[in-house]
Specification:
With 69 residues, the protein is α+β, with helices and mostly antiparallel strands. It has a single domain, classed as Flavin-binding protein dodecin (Dodecin subunit-like, 2-Layer Sandwich). The protein is built from one helix and three strands, in the order E-H-E-E. The protein has a three-stranded antiparallel beta sheet with strand order 1-3-2. Strand 2 and strand 3 form a beta hairpin.
C-alpha cells in the first residue's frame, strides 16, 4: 500500500468583502508556490471595525499539502 505524508502550513487570507473571499484568496495565493494542496482548516477569524461596520476580514488557515516523494 502506498502511504501519503502531509505537511501543514499556516497562512492568513484577507478580504474587504467576506470571510469566504478571504479563505479563497489565501488558498489561491498559496497554490501559486505550494503544490499538492489538499485541505484547509480555519483556525481563527478576525476583522477590522470602522465605526459600526466591518471594514476587513482576516481568516487564519492551516493548509495541508502532500509531501512529494
Amino acid at each position: 500500500m502506498h502511504e501519503m505524508i502531509y505537511k501543514k502550513l499556516e497562512v492568513v487570507g484577507t478580504s474587504p468583502n467576506s470571510i469566504d473571499e478571504a479563505i479563497r484568496n489565501a488558498i489561491h495565493r498559496a497554490s501559486v508556490s505550494v503544490r499538492e494542496l489538499r485541505w484547509f482548516e480555519v483556525s481563527e477569524l478576525r476583522g477590522d471595525i470602522n465605526g459600526s461596520e466591518v471594514a476587513h476580514f482576516q481568516v487564519t488557515l492551516k493548509l495541508g499539502f502532500r509531501v512529494e516523494e
